[in-house]
Amino acid sequence: MTERDLLPTRQPRPRTYLMCPPEHYVVEYAINPWMDTTTPVDTALAVKQWDGLRQTMVDLGHTVHVLNPTPGLPDMVFAANGAFVVDGVAYGAKFRYPQRADEAAGHRAFYEARDDYRFVAPTQINEGEGDFAYLPNAHGGIALAGYGFRTEPAAHAEAAEALGRPVISLKLVDPRFYHLDVALAALDDENVTYFPGAFSEASQQVLAQLFPNAVIADEADALAFALNLVSDGHNVVINTESAAYGEKVAAAGYHPVMVELGELKKGGGSIKCCIAELRD
Ligand code: ARG
Hints:
Layout lengths: L15 E4 L23 H17 L3 E4 L16 E4 L2 E4 L10 H10 L5 E3 L11 E4 L6 E6 L5 H11 L3 E5 L12 E3 L5 E3 L6 H10 L4 E2 L2 H5 L6 E2 L3 E5 L3 H9 L3 E5 L2 H4 L10 E2 L3
Parallel strand pairs: 1-2, 4-5, 7-8, 10-11, 13-14
Antiparallel strand pairs: 1-15, 3-4, 6-7, 9-10, 12-13
The structure holds arginine.
The site of arginine has 16 residues, from loops.
């Protein structure tokens, strides 16, 4: 018997996702340190990589809804930023930068057209799942929320009020990791993975207290956008730059699935940024 045989069985749970194809994706403005307007973007390649990601999620047994992309909104491919959905309640996004402001309407229309979700309009700046994560079985169901670069702390309180769940505020301190979802991810219903250096000392203490079994990533993992992952509780979908990190989640009993998404990194995003989870 090997050490791996003694690990808990990580069970996948079927999920519902929302994605938006990068048909209008370019880097024509820079609102995070990864964006460089002088580096050309291959939009056709981005669409091809994105479709590989969509197909991977379908092949894993998940439902993927597709949002229509709007011309002139190049970052709309980063669908995770459009809302934060818990128990059928969609707390809408209010983007930090004017270049992305109009994306919120497309997401709102998606939820308002469906009976299975109740949309709550935000008054505070927040970028949806870019800065919110949800753990349904941790401490009875808690949300983690980032602030420091994009989402306002006042939105954390607004989300708690909209969703009826405790929201734990975590301070992001490194501009390269400007959203929570490039610094931390839910691996399953109760456990997380994160890069401590992206958080303030105090927030590192909070995370260590809440998640003693977390899978800890290092700076190289975080820089590869390994933490910008999507997990169904068993399959952990990461980008192909994150092979070293893949071994860490495998050692913890999960199954890494690699997808090439390099063109999207030029916009400052990877797997998770492209996928919003719709929790009924
Ligand atoms: N260019 C986008 C921005 O700066 C990237 C968003 C990435 N999305 C994410 N969920 N981290 O807003």
